[in-house]
Amino acid sequence: MLAQSFSRAVQLLLSGNREVYFIAFTSLQLSSISILISALISLPLGVLLGFKRFPGRRVIIIILNTMMSLPTVVIGLLVYSLISRSGPLGGMGLLFSRGAIIIGQTLLSLPIIISLVYGAISRIDQRLPETLTTLGAQPGDIFIMTLKEGKIAILSALLAGFGRIIGEVGVSMMLGGNIRWYTRTLTTAIALETSKGEFELALALGLILLVISLAVNLSLHWLVKDER
Amino acid sequence: MNAETLFSIRNLHFSYEQKEVLKIERLELKANQVTLLVGPNGSGKTTLLKLINGLLKPGSAQIDFRGEAINGKGYQNMRSHSVLVHQDPFLLSGSVFQNVAYGLKIRKEAAPVIRRKVNEKLTLVGLSGFEHRKVHKLSGGEKQRVAIARALVLEPEVLLLDEPAANVDTRSLKLIEALILKLQERGATVIVSAHNRSFAYRLGSEFLTLKRGRLIPGRENIFKGFVKKQDEIFTYFISGKNLLHCPAQKGDFNTAVLPLNDVILSKREINSSAQNNFKGKVTHIKREGHLYRIELACPLVVQAHITEYSLNNLQVEIGKEFYLAFKASAVKLY
């Protein structure tokens, strides 16, 4: 039975079913935007945590580490309570939109990316800022050079964050609502199709997810190997 | 020569985690000379260099560059005219060229200018042809020279070098030494820290001795000059117009060092085994602990440490003439 479903799933993929590819594209698009926003926030913050010593730094690191293991449904719940009709941001009409998924996934990936970027930056030579300062570099120059020096570890951090959100269900389901041709992602579609007993479609989507995960992991592996 | 004051420091009390590492009430660093910061490890040399380069916050101290506070108006001026080369310097990953070019790139210099200047400075530090080498394949001495080239390419008026002689091979040491002497000839201002005495003596024209974060007076006379001739018995060293008898030793020396304690002061000319005999006028008398530092112009300026007993016994006073003597073996050549 499994073998039969599998071959039908492959057929589905090869036949170029529009909906399957739309769902896959939605997943990739939303997760990519989330990672991009996450990167914009976490890179400066990671550099700050990695290089500067300031009061409250340790507290931030502990909070981030705790948030890294926060279940996706809890993040979903938190954002839901903020953007639902009766929530403080309810007026913006974000619930069950792509924007809501992006907010949730950004929040989900932030702690892991900040933590990993911070880790990467603190492994960079602490003499870097001082050395560049004496050569006349401005804070912006130092920031750019820090990212360059830590580029492999930083890329790994972004990929790890991507890996976490591309495969999550909680946030997409609770905040996106699994709306067909709109917020339906690979994971929410798999959950739905499985519950409907449509194993072929679920399996086809699962295969795509697997390929994406494999690609992310291979790139990570390749990056880390390159660093050694 | 009344050299211009580049850095002036007042009331410097600097602490790391509540431990005072530097305490300097007053210090002026002059332009166009090589100033050597000497003292053991942990005496505060690096901290002082970082403070005058604005890499550490001076707290309540007043540190001026050309009369303007470096934590205020003078910062930009100081930053664009002085560069510090760290001990065990950090190099950016990539090639030698990328490292040396960095400062010029952020100053948005044109590519051909950058190429020309980088090549010029790499040649100066003896690394011509190293442009495309990866920095992680360089030796400690080569890394040090890349870091020096990276600073020199900016053509700073003031070059600050923190322990350039530490962790480098002999060849690099000689090259760095020759380079600093060349910069000195061109009238550059170089402030170097070193705990390697021979390196320090050969390079410096001014010496500052730090001990546990405080400036202490040096305990030796340092005469700059050259070797006139050498035979089996003596090395004849010329400093100014004076001839010093030094121990027979082969080498190209530029500095003779004579401890203050080894100088004998007398009212009459003495006929002794001491080969170096001068007559001079007392120009300064200063109490240092339980001793007195006496300076005489012979015209070679020689300082001597004597006890209070000798001071009274010989009736040493400013303007009086005395004879002084020291053995050839008391002089060390560098």
Protein model, in words:
The complex is a heterodimer of chains A (228) and B (334). Chain A contains 11 helices and no strands. Chain A has 228 residues and is mostly helical. In chain A, helix 5 packs antiparallel against helix 9. With 334 residues, chain B is α+β, with helices and mostly antiparallel strands. Chain B has 8 helices and 21 strands. Chain B has a 6-stranded mixed sheet with strand order 6-7-8-3-9-10, with helices on both faces. In chain B, strands 16-20-17-18-19 form a 5-stranded antiparallel sheet. Chain B has a 4-stranded antiparallel sheet with strand order 2-1-4-5, with helices on one face. The interface between A and B is medium-sized, with 16 and 20 residues.
How many beta-strand runs of chain B? 21
Instruction: Categorize the overall geometry of chain B.
Output: globular
- Count of beta strands of chain A: 0
Report the end-to-end length of chain B measured between terminal Cα atoms.
25 Å
- Which ranges of chain B are low-confidence, i.e. pLDDT below 50, for 5 or more consecutive residues? none
Task: Report the total helices of chain B.
Answer: 8
User: How large a portion of the residues of chain A is in β-strands, by DSSP E?
Assistant: under 5%
Report strand % of chain B: 35-45%
Strand order within the widest sheet of chain B? 6-7-8-3-9-10
Following the backbone from N to C, one meets helices and strands of chain B in this order, namely: EEEHEEHEHHHEHEHEEEEEEEEEEEHEE
General form of chain A: globular
Overall mean pLDDT of chain B stands at: 94
